[in-house]
């Protein structure tokens, strides 16, 4: 099985380089291979957290030129780090959804069961990037994907929360479910130990494409494990789950009754 260590690494990041958290439009193009980072200094910002897990109320309302409208910021304390996520009202992918929070906390609390250290991890439908940030903080080489219009805010959030904190620099790339998968992510060279998906069953016109995308990255015999968190909202969620179980050997890892969020671990059926 491939691991990040087998892929040619780019030059190591200079730990003395001044950190800059510019707007999404100012970020330079990310490298396409993992980059080992020095353990940087943790953000010295002193922020109180009334809730030890998360503060879900918006902290700031502002209009910014890089996005149509900024809803606010959500603050989380996960994997021993303060995480600040910028949201917007541009699309579904610009908000933090319950499945991402639930799976992030599950991964933090079950590190022995799901060990991300030095693992290649792909997230589909990454949205604001919370889950990809947590996976990066847990030592994974992460590639976060979503629709092209989501990429600027996703890149901004990953950059601001990962610099100087992570073993590898997380990568961001556009991915449209079911579209040019073999061309953009050839099976011969794109192998991942884990694929993550959280609250991706929302756009019910593209569920077949979603299932095809999951299957592309988790082929039989690939050894890839899919971690999927989903909040049940509609009857179609249950129908998709049945389709999912017909394609993957599935284990229900946990079910959060209070939020109707279920977390599955799955591998492709032979």
Helix content: 10-25%
Which homologous superfamily in CATH is the superfamily of the domain at 90-268? Vaccinia Virus protein VP39
Q: Which CATH first-tier class of the domain at 90-268 would you pick? A: Alpha Beta
The helix/strand order is EEEHEHEHEHEHEHEE
Flag low-confidence runs: 5-70
Structure overview:
The chain is α/β, with parallel strands linked by helices and 270 residues long. It has six helices and ten strands, in the order βββαβαβαβαβαβαββ. Helix 3 links the parallel strand 5 and strand 6 (171-174). The protein is globular.
Question: TL;DR?
Answer:
The chain has six helices and ten strands. By secondary structure, it is α/β, with parallel strands linked by helices. The strands form two sheets. The chain has a seven-stranded mixed β-sheet, sandwiched between helices. A three-stranded antiparallel β-sheet has the order 1-2-3.
Task: Summarize the helices and strands and which ones pair or pack.
Layout: E1 54-55, E2 70-78, E3 81-88, H1 98-109, E4 120-124, H2 130-137, E5 141-146, H3 151-162, E6 171-174, H4 181-184, E7 194-198, H5 207-217, E8 225-231, H6 235-247, E9 248-256, E10 261-268
Parallel strand pairs: 4-5, 4-7, 5-6, 7-8
Antiparallel strand pairs: 1-2, 2-3, 8-10, 9-10
Helix pairs in contact: 1-2, 2-3
Summary keywords:
single chain; 270 residues; alpha/beta; Rossmann fold; 7-stranded mixed β-sheet; 3-stranded antiparallel β-sheet; 6 helices; 22% helix
